[in-house]
């Protein structure tokens, strides 16, 4: 009701959720390397022993926080579209809110961290959404290669937008992605009759 919780969660769940939110906040504002027991405990206003109790290791806490943030980001993104033009619409706005934590998760996984499973979960979700868009556009993609290409293009666009910070540039590139999809989509069939 009104966006507030109707029932108070158990103290254990509430503390864990606060700790994860604190870890995400620190990772976004200061970088994942600054996510420590003490920093998270201070941000969540709890003792650092409680952080250890909930997560065991700093790496486990960071992996869970990055996974949560990346899954939220993936669910927020405009990857499912009804037409090629919809792929570009709203993309730049989502990039401005993009915390880019999925890239930290992926880099951690590549470097041998604990986040490989989480990174794959995030990318599998993104690929399914893109595959649904391609299917809706009647673009055949049995091996998922077009979906992987579109995902790579959107990831590259997110990174470039973070670097350049130009919404106009990002919109132009997103428009090109939409043009590519429109080109791949078969022409509408003439009405039967």
What does this structure look like?
By secondary structure, the protein is mostly helical. It contains ten helices and no strands. The protein has helices at 11-30, 37-44, 48-55, 58-76, 84-88, 91-97, 101-110, 116-136, 145-164, 167-184. Helix 1 crosses helix 2 (37-44) and helix 9 (145-164) packs antiparallel against helix 10. The longest helix is centred in the middle third of the chain and has 21 residues, at 116-136. The chain is elongated.
Walk me through the topology.
Layout (H helix, E strand, L loop, with lengths): L10 H20 L6 H8 L3 H8 L2 H19 L7 H5 L2 H7 L3 H10 L5 H21 L8 H20 L2 H18 L9
Which descriptors apply to this entry?
193 residues; mainly alpha; 10 helices; disordered N terminus
